[in-house]
Specification:
Elements (H helix, E strand, L loop, with lengths): L3 E3 L3 E4 L7 E4 L8 E7 L6 E6 L6 E3 L7 E6 L4 E6 L8 E8 L11 E2 L3 E6 L1
Parallel strand pairs: 2-11
Antiparallel strand pairs: 1-3, 3-8, 4-5, 4-9, 5-6, 7-8, 9-10, 9-11
Length: 122
């Protein structure tokens, strides 16, 4: 089992950058594919980015491609989401997820964090 804790969210202005980390418990972190999802107020949770267990393969939603970068440090049991050129439409609660399969949809994810709020003003 994996427990996930996100942090590093907060307030920013359009064009700012944020890099929230997601810390995972357990000695098998390197076996899991990791992902970030987000959920804006009144909207469904959506896929943002995912990374394979060795970090060799990444996937991104079209809305963040070229602005966001997912990475992981298996020595620190941590996955990061580097968010550049933030836009007001990026405002959402960002959730970290883990799975033993490639994560591209909500149904692929097995473990979830509690989420961290990111708010971007114009």
């Amino acid at each position: 089992q994996v427990q996930l804790v996100e942090s590093g969210g907060g307030l920013g202005q359009a064009g700012d950058s944020l890099r929230p980390p997601c810390a995972a418990s357990g000695r098998t972190f390197s076996s899991y594919s990791m992902a970030w999802f987000r959920q804006a107020s009144g909207k469904e949770r959506e896929f943002v980015a995912s990374i394979s267990w060795r970090g060799l393969t990444t996937y991104y939603a079209d809305s963040v491609k070229g602005r966001f970068t997912i990475s992981r440090d298996n020595n620190k049991n941590t996955v990061y989401l580097q968010m550049n050129s933030l836009k007001p439409e990026d405002t959402a609660v960002y959730y970290c997820a883990a799975s033993l399969v490639v994560v591209r949809t909500i149904s692929d994810a097995k473990y979830w964090g509690q989420g961290t709020q990111v708010t971007v003003s114009s």
